[in-house]
Specification:
The structure is a single chain. The protein is built from 8 helices and 9 strands. It is of the alpha/beta class and about 270 residues long. It has a 6-stranded mixed sheet. A 3-stranded antiparallel sheet has the order 7-8-9. The radius of gyration is 17 Å and the shape is globular. The protein is about 35% helix and about 20% strand. It has one domain: UDP-N-acetylmuramoyl-L-alanine:D-glutamate ligase (3-Layer(aba) Sandwich). Helix 3 links the parallel strand 4 and strand 5.
């Protein structure tokens, strides 16, 4: 019996906290073999993003082809794409290979505030949503996709999720980590009308670098293992919550530090 496989299509964070580094750690922690396609190189750490170098679109395509023509990919997690050329080549690859599970995390702005998606790429990103089985925006990302203000409560989160479903995704999971309530609430709204509320007490920590990447890749890991979307979302919520709760133990960097992806082991 072969191992479940997930591939991340995202940017590289050389400090190891977000992007492909976080995704591969998450896949490994959850028992999934991870492959990676690099869309952009960043110069960043826990204090900020200091430079971005896009990977040429034809080379992104070559990486995708190398993975999909050899590995039995069970799920795809898409993160930072940077610009229109990268989005177009990823869309074409999804149309070509038709992977079973696609988790689209619409990465736009780093946790330190720097923009990771160029303004001319937003419309292309909206078009990509129709190829996703689940879209995982945080509150500001959902608002940017809809051209509105971030949701202020769960009712508005629900409203935004239903509007995003109109772009064609099979489900929308809106992450409430940017909220200010005592609970951190995420809402998974599926096109079939089902809604799952995922809520935990909010954890007081500044070390949340890469939390969005980690959550989306954890969902992809669950789907690669054959879990239902709701089961994968529950497992992902539990995993990312534990990784955030243990983040202060790491002591990595002098800014917003990373999660402890392997808190269960060391």
């Amino acid at each position: 019996m072969s191992a479940p496989i997930a591939v991340t299509i995202a940017g590289l964070d050389p400090s190891g906290g977000a992007g492909i580094a976080a995704d591969l750690k998450t896949f490994s922690a959850l028992g999934v073999f991870g492959a990676a396609v690099v869309t952009a190189l960043t110069a960043q750490n826990t204090r900020g993003v200091f430079g971005i170098q896009d990977v040429p679109a034809d080379f992104i395509a070559a990486q995708i082809n190398a993975v999909f023509t050899d590995l039995a990919v069970g799920a795809v997690k898409i993160g930072m794409l940077g610009g229109p050329a990268a989005i177009d080549v990823v869309a074409a690859a999804l149309d070509r290979y038709r992977p079973r599970n696609v988790v689209l995390d619409p990465v736009m702005i780093a946790s330190s505030g720097q923009r990771l998606l160029r303004g001319d790429a937003l419309d292309r990103l909206r078009d990509l949503i129709a190829r996703a089985h689940v879209l995982t925006p945080n509150l500001p990302e959902a608002a940017a996709l809809l051209g509105t203000e971030p949701a202020r409560d769960e009712a508005e989160m629900q409203e935004h999720a239903h509007k995003l479903l109109a772009f064609g995704a099979g489900a929308v999971l809106i992450k409430g980590g940017h909220g200010g309530d005592a609970e951190s609430v995420d809402l998974l709204v599926e096109a079939n009308g089902e809604t799952l509320r995922l809520a935990v007490p909010r954890i007081a920590t500044e070390n949340t670098h890469g939390s969005g990447c980690t959550f989306a890749s954890a969902i992809a890991a669950g789907l690669a293992k054959g879990l239902s979307l709701q089961a994968a979302a529950r497992e992902a919520k539990a995993y990312v919550t534990a990784a955030i709760a243990a983040a202060d133990r790491l002591g990595v960097g002098s800014g917003h530090g990373p999660l402890h992806h392997f808190q269960a082991w060391w």
